[in-house]
Specification:
Length: 393
């Protein structure tokens, strides 16, 4: 088999809004567990949603323990053979290849020292450990995380919105490994129901067990993300919800040729957000508009040689932002998806897995978190365990 670059970790960037990292001479160590084997790595960096340049003072990579402590000597990562460089505002780049042998299940520490610049481009995910410490500690074998004062903003926001908000992850767009075994990625292209990690984490466990050294699961989901429209400027955390799924498809999915399957799990926010603090009433879609957009997205995915797996929308009648017209439109949209399922490689009936048979406009309460919209661990496991893994054979 030929060598191919495959993501072992990645994220979809948006504007980190109030959760960003202000300018501070600090080291960011990402601890990544690889599902795949490979002989080299390369790192993609992004400063796409920042309004200032970022000066990178150094990057290292090393195999490590789960706590980020180096097992072997580190290697220096460069950009155009320069260990120090500037990542300009709005820029995305691919660092130079670094030879390093990785086996499935091994941990990799990617350490980045930021000399100058606010870090405003990134995401909030729970599938990687991030250690932050002041000063240039890229070459240090072991470092201890220093909690920042701004983390209290996350704690307050989480209480206000009844959400569990993960630690912000800046700078890195993806880490890719040069694989020789025919491995590929399964990309999750979703919103906060995926970004929260409750079903995607369990799904990744099942994939690793069923297909060792065959697939990585890459979560390219953004909280609050809509299909038809970019984030609404009326929302206090401007930019956090990201560009629309239609507008970010190329950047987050099609720019990579490693994905064999793409799970398209968006649409909830188009149906739920309008008329709330997040979006005005005029943003109300129709079920047909949403279906047409999903078909357009999946057509583009198929044209790129990837297989689209579409999730329908789980009912959200317990959520404070729900209304009868929104619930009716969701049922209409799910019905249209079923009628047009031949457009997709596979249609996953998420709704029927979690629905409350006694309140058919609602997901079972025992599957939901405090906000009565997002899954808790029980609901996430229910969804992940209901996915028939034979579709990936």
């Amino acid at each position: 088999m030929h060598d191919k670059w495959v993501q072992i970790w990645g994220q979809a960037h948006s504007n980190l809004s109030h959760f960003y990292y202000p300018e501070d001479k600090k080291t960011y160590r990402f601890v990544i567990n690889s599902a795949l084997s490979g002989k080299s790595i390369r790192i993609r960096l992004s400063n796409e949603f920042s309004d200032s340049d970022v000066t990178i003072g150094g990057i290292t990579v090393a195999k490590c323990e789960s706590n980020g402590c180096f097992k072997d000597s580190y290697k220096t990562v460069t950009n155009n053979k320069q260990s120090q460089f500037v990542l300009k505002k709005g820029e995305r780049l691919i660092c130079d290849e670094v030879e390093i042998n990785i086996a499935p299940g091994e941990y990799l520490a990617v350490s980045i020292y930021v000399e100058k610049g606010d870090l405003k481009s990134g995401n909030l995910l729970n599938n990687v450990k991030l250690i932050t410490v002041k000063g240039n500690k890229c070459k240090d074998r072991s470092i201890e995380n220093q909690r920042r004062k701004r983390d209290s903003v996350i704690d307050v926001a989480g209480k206000i919105f009844n959400l569990f908000l993960h630690k912000p992850l800046p700078l890195i767009e993806s880490v890719e490994i040069l694989n020789s075994n025919g491995a590929s990625a399964i990309t999750v292209f979703g919103d906060s129901l995926c970004q929260q990690g409750y079903w995607t984490g369990r799904f990744e466990e099942r994939i690793r067990d069923a297909f060792p050294d065959r697939f990585s699961v890459i979560n390219k989901s953004i909280m609050g993300n809509r299909v038809l429209r970019d984030f609404s400027p009326r929302f206090p955390c401007k930019g956090l919800f990201g560009d629309s799924a239609r507008n970010r498809l190329n950047r987050d999915v099609l720019d990579y040729d490693d994905s064999e399957y793409v799970i398209v799990a968006v649409g909830t926010n188009d149906l739920l957000q309008y008329g709330t603090i997040a979006a005005p009433k005029k943003d109300k879609p129709t079920a047909q508009e949403l279906l047409d957009a999903i078909i357009s997205i999946t057509d583009n995915i198929k044209e790129s040689g990837k297989k689209p797996i579409v999730f329908n929308v789980a009912m959200f009648g317990e959520c404070i932002d729900s209304r009868t017209e929104k619930e009716d439109m969701t049922k209409e949209y799910n019905k249209l998806l079923f009628e047009n399922r031949d457009n997709f490689y596979f249609l996953f009936d998420q709704e029927s897995v979690v629905i409350n048979p006694e309140k058919i406009n609602c997901t079972k309460k025992e599957y939901l978190g405090k906000d009565k919209l997002h899954y808790n661990a029980t609901g996430g496991n229910m969804v992940a365990d209901a996915i028939d893994l034979s579709i990936f054979k």
